[in-house]
Amino acid sequence: MEDSYIKQNLNGILKTVWQSASNAGRSAHDIRIVAITKTAPSEVLPLLLDAGISDAGENRWQVARDKFEHPDASRLTWHFVGSLQTNKVKYIVPRFDWVHSVDSIELADALSHGAVKFERNLQILLQVNVAEEPQKHGFNAESCAEAVRRIQALPGLSLRGLMTMAPIVDRAEDARPVFRQLRSLLEGIRDDFSLEAFDQLSMGMSDDFAIAIEEGATMIRLGRSLVNPPTSGEEA
Ligand SMILES: *Cc1c(COP(=O)(O)O)cnc(C)c1O
Q1: Distance between CA atoms of 23 and 117, rounded to whole angstroms?
Q2: Is 138 a pocket residue for ligand 1 (Cβ < 6 Å)?
Q3: What is the C-alpha separation between 149 and 167, in angstroms, rounded?
Q4: Is residue 206 lining ligand 1, measured as CB closer than 6 Å?
Q5: What distance in angstroms lies between residue 113's CA and the mean position of ligand 1's atoms?
Q6: Per-position pLDDT tens, the chain of length 236
Q7: Run of H or E residues at 6
Q8: Is 136 in the pocket of ligand 1 (CB under 6 A)?
Q9: CA 200 to CA 77: how far, in whole Å?
Q10: Which of 3, 58, 120, 207 is 20 to 30 A distant from 113 in Cα terms?
Q11: Where are the alpha helices (DSSP H) in 72-194?
């Protein structure tokens, strides 16, 4: 049988993951691929599982909700990666295992309340707007440490690390300083607060994941390059 388009996409992606990990003297096994399924129908879920991917992510509840009707949804670990209003927390907490986009103490509070109520434990990452772009959500380097201080002891939450979205650049190489800063922020906070499990860096998307891995990404969030079928006429 011919490989699914997901497997074909993944083959190319894995070559880059291995190469970038090797460039950085890292093991490719330490890098988790989170398939961002927002542009794909729910039929993509069994194809992801079949290709060996067990992590999926969405950035809006309105788009995510249909995916959970699919019988295979419960076989995946789910990551919420988009901006989240506190009134949507009640939908997210029962279904998602990770929230990468905690961008305020109020949101962390709401997630904590939800987690306690639904008897869940949520893995959370703080979103950092490293480049301080006005249109982007997230803490900056200074407010991040203060947020960690306030959030680390909230019940129902495990504070696991940091997430960023790099600025859109012409050359992926230009995003490198942003990834490097996120990693140094993570290491600084981990040492200052003695947080042993604060070890996750969610950074790198379809256009820049190779650079993110070289700079220490432990989770890469891949949308288009992984879940979109190759369009005819375009090189696969
Ligand atoms: C859509 C999205 C991605 C995936 O983007 P691609 O460039 O398609 O790989 C990653 N992270 C977040 C927060 C997203 O919204």
Answers
A1: 45
A2: no
A3: 27
A4: yes
A5: 28
A6: 689 999 999 999 999 999 999 999 999 999 999 999 999 999 999 999 999 999 999 999 999 999 999 999 999 999 999 999 999 999 999 999 999 999 999 999 999 999 999 999 999 999 999 989 999 999 998 899 999 999 999 999 999 999 999 999 999 999 999 999 999 999 999 999 999 899 999 999 999 999 999 999 999 999 999 999 877 555 54
A7: helix 5-23
A8: no
A9: 16
A10: 58
A11: 89-95, 105-117, 141-151, 176-193
pLDDT for 118-168, tens place per residue? 999 999 999 999 989 999 999 998 899 999 999 999 999 999 999 999 999
The residue whose CA is least distant from atom 10 of ligand 1 is: 221
**Cβ contact 98:122 at 8 Å:** yes
How many Å lie between the centroid of ligand 1 and the Cα of residue 228? 12
Cα-to-centroid distance, 194 and ligand 1 (Å):
31
What's the CA-to-centroid distance between 124 and ligand 1, angstroms?
18
pTM of the model: 0.96
